Amino acid sequence: MKLILKLLLNALAVVILSYVLPGVGVDSYQTAIIVALVLSVLNFLVKPILVILTLPITILTLGLFLLIINAILILTAAHFIPGFEVSSVLWAIIFSLLLSFLQSILHSLLKEDK
């Protein structure tokens, strides 16, 4: 149940950012849910492989290359999902940064106080 709620919160973050950022577009709420699902799968399966393969350049750039990896994953999702558009790499980097920030805020609402 918590996994579905997190997925819906991620979709809400995608919708909010599509309204705020002019370089990012989402056609519908259903598309936003698909984007959240695809980004989750890409982050789970593909991102660790890319991080390992690009470890030397990531170390050289003091971790800033991870922003490029996130942008590549977002552009990959935009390529495969009809209705989700990202106009450039710069918008993908900005979308990635703001998405992680907004997700952390929304997911902090789910945390239970102990």
Automatic annotation (TrEMBL):
The chain crosses the membrane at residues 32-55, 62-82, 88-110. Keywords: Membrane, Transmembrane, Transmembrane helix. It comes from the Bacteria. The keyword Lyase does not apply. The keyword Membrane applies. InterPro entries: Phage_holin_4_2. It holds the Pfam family Phage_holin_4_2. This is Phage holin family protein. It comes from Flagellimonas spongiicola.
